[in-house]
Predict the structure.
Amino acid sequence: MKKHLLFCLSMALLIASCAQPDNDIEKRIDNYLSQMTLEEKVGILHAQSKFSSAGVPRLGIPELWTDDGPHGVRPETLWDAFASAQWTNDSVTAYPSLTCLAASWDRDLAALYGKSVGEEALYRGKDVLLGPGVNIMRTPLGGRGFEYMGEDPFLAAEMCVPYIQGIQSNGVAACVKHFCLNNHEVNRHTVNVNVSDRALHEIYLPAFKAAVQKGGVWSVMGAYNLYEDVHCCHNDALLNGILKHDWGFDGVLVSDWGGAHDGEQAARGGLDLEFGTHTNGLDAGKKDAYEDFYLANPYLEGLRAGIYDEETLNDKCRRVLRLMMRTSMSGDRGFGSMNSPEHWADARRIGSGGIVLLRNEGGVLPLKGTPAKVVVLGENAIKPMAVGGSSSSLKAQHETSILDGLKAALPGTEVVYERAYQGEPFITGYNYSLYDISDPRSSEKLLSDAIAALDGADYVIFVGGLNKGKTRDCEGKDRLDYGLPYGQDEIVEKIAAVRPDMIFVNVSGSPVAMPWINNVAGIVQAWYLGSETGNAMADVLTGRVNPSGKLPFTFPKALEDCPVTTPEQYPGILGEDEIWQSYYTEGIYVGYRWYESRGIEPLFAFGHGLSYTTFEYGKAKASSRVMKDKLQISVPVTNTGDVAGAEVVQLYIADKEASVDRPVKELKGFEKIWLEPGQTGTVKFTIDREAISFYDEEAHDWKAEKGVFEALVGAASDDIRTSVEFNY
Ligand code: GLC
């Protein structure tokens, strides 16, 4: 009888609580907490399967489902393994990589992206989408550069916030990752990162801080690596200190899969929800060993023994229940949608908005009129790219290749394709898609056939680059060198010798060496564009879309020019205690901050990107000579060409009288402005003391010093058009 009464009471409470508006979430949580047993509380703090954690069936609390991210919703895996479950209804829209989104410098596009991919997650029954990744690109060799948002903390912060808000507008949680300092893949589970407080706060934390304080992100994923000798997934200083206390994060800290390594730290170090497989989440152990996770039976036994306090337990549970109330138990979040023409249009728009025109000698692009013959070369013109890259790999419902996109866009043109080289004949992604693109010809024959096809071509487009295979833009494996694989450089040289007007389309999510740069007329940075690859690229190459992307990271000429060149810096060295140590001795000098401080000229600068039109900048004006709280910088910009286009106007701030060493300048604003031919628009930036501050390691806080500053406005970090000084 008692059980029956208890059940009726809990159902009554549940019905009552679901009917209440969201702002009673805390009351609903109190209700549930008051009814949950110790076992049930611990039960919601760890995985029950590869991508889900348990609910409380007795109280009608559903299980919580997560999935990767960030470029689309990952196909279903087995209950207890990453292997594909071979479902037939989990193909999705593959969106462009986040590096492409960052390259758009378009906050509205980021919001659209988040809304769109969040609808697919909702339709697939996911409560948490594991993305965005916002770790800063510190070395071009980092395996996951394609998944992240470039080398600048301000750009990554500004672009991740609308993406997060877009996802969460669906009642699906975003999960910003990997917090923090996961800047390369070698020894990612074991490397202890040594970094100055100033670099930590000025370079590596800002995007996460914006995700929490501006984006209101509902979950954060801890990184695999260590910081101050403690794994980030249960690092008290980072999680309880900075994330939860200093920043006021009220969501859930999720471990990366297998990122927990210590029971005591997992209990006390700020971890709320432990994911992984097997016992300690990482090492092979008993199958379905979820009960042996650190936040499972070991934690329960510690609570029963009085080793761990119930207050901390309740805080973890409150956070997880809050995440559930915002998602699986929100009651009014609709059903989402998937593989819709709208989503394909979104993917296409994000792709063409992020494509960067790097070089356009003689105005070789866009393709003029209806060419009689266009020759398309290179494996990446036909290779599916949604698959690959490891956890962000996708099963795309469709993926239009660059070759197909060009054929569709040029119906009256003879489009001839030649492989020119063979890289990977097969592609598999978690065994859910095997593409056989093998070619029996020898490499000599492949090249000679390509050269022979050039005859009479109006245009030659070579599509090369990387391909999300291991060591070629892939999680878990950094790149082994800075050059293009498969001997592409030699092939490009030979093609360019015949056709110096050729166009190179670089498919990659990180910078690559281009020793042949002066031998080709056009270079386009294509990123990984997802389902609508071919259409997005054809839109730009034909001029249907005027390219407006700008690089979110620098293309150095050579790896030796990079800020990270010693083994201590990367990948790190093995210390006496057998712990891998990586020393970020370059400090705040990452990306353009480094190259400009050392006067090193890059191949292509941060913020670089050409257009099919031209823009002229007027004189920058400051709303006052002295900044009190805020200051407005305004600049008139005119489209002086003959086609409409968008310009990303960038604002950098230089501290002319700093008491500490500071970069030449730092990005502190950007606006994308669309202008018709002849039209002038005025771009306005409002800055405050945050834009002129540096992190003071003595004071452990940000500091804005009195003195003279300069606002520099331009089309790229190496293309400043106007500036104005002001005092603070
Ligand atoms: C991976 C990745 C993380 C991903 C998670 C689940 O190891 O580091 O980004 O979300 O595990 O697949």
Notes: The radius of gyration is 26 Å. Confidence is low (pLDDT under 50) at residues 13-21. The chain has three domains: 36-326, 355-538, 611-727.
